[in-house]
Amino acid sequence: MDEEHRGTWFGFGFCGFGQALGSGLGRQVHSPEPLRTPGGNLDVCRVSASWSYTAFVTRGGRAGPLPLLPCARAYVSPRPPFYRPLAPTLRARRLELGAEHALLLDAAGQVFSWGAGRHGQLGHGTLEAEPEPRLLEALQGLPMAEVAAGGWHSVCLSASGLDEDGSEVKRVSTGEDGAPAPFIAVQPFPALLDLSPGSEAVKVSCGSRHTAVLTRTGELYTWGWGK
To answer: Coiled coil: which residue ranges (predicted)?
Structure first.
């Protein structure tokens, strides 16, 4: 997704699910086309694109259209229009889309998550799905500056530069033959991630099963699935 000037966004690529807004279903968009947002002339400041759906945030903090997420009965209809806006009380600063879940960072730095939770990616301490945006209570009192959603995990960056991860965490153990044996451990609560001493994270991003963090001094840290 790309912005030409204030409020004008373009999308292109595979659109089998209609994820380039206004492009229609089941077609490939080979060159950038303007996104047609529901409601007409909305002042869009950010667009978040996942593999099969798209959402946007306006400069007034409104988020929409909300994605078709598994188990998310709110904001989703089986008939057109497929998307509905968030409750007006939620003033979005950032909206990030994972494969089956979504994260919303509000104006106060609070994080809300919803959608599928079978990998622990929602950070609520269970593997259950959440049908509607739910406040991430474990992070209350610690304002967040950034959020990122991957395929199976979520990462958020606190305003003080600490990295918090409510996600499925990958570790490496040693097998009986002494060779490294990878395994996956579910971490359904936010867990602190340590960087090198003195490193202050300023940006965070998630891929399908990997994470990247950029520090204030320009160092780039990456970890996760490398296939």
So the answer is: none
Highest mean pLDDT among 80-84, 140-144, 156-160, 171-175: 140-144
For residues 204 and 147, give the distance between their C-alpha atoms in angstroms, rounded to a whole number: 7
Closest CA to 226 of 207, 198, 213, 203: 207
Please enumerate in sequence order all residues whose Cβ is within 8 A of that of 205, keeping only pairs 6 or more positions apart, or say none.
Answer: 148, 211, 212, 213
Provide the residue ranges of all domains of the chain, joining segments of one domain with +. 37-224
Average pLDDT, the chain: 74
Which letter does DSSP use for residue 76 in this model? B
Instruction: Please state the φ and ψ torsions of residue 139, each to the nearest 5 degrees.
Output: -105, 5
% of the chain with per-residue pLDDT over 70: 65
Tokens of 138: 């474990």
3-class secondary structure for 192-209? EECCCCCCCEEEEEECCC
What pLDDT digit, counting tens, does each position of 107-150 carry?
899 999 988 888 899 999 999 988 888 999 999 889 999 999 99
CATH of 37-224, one of 2.130.10.30, 3.40.50.300, 3.40.50.1970, 2.60.40.1120: 2.130.10.30
What are the angstrom distances between the C-alpha of 111 and each of 17, 24, 49, 134, 148?
A: 27, 32, 19, 8, 11
d(CA 92, CA 107): 6
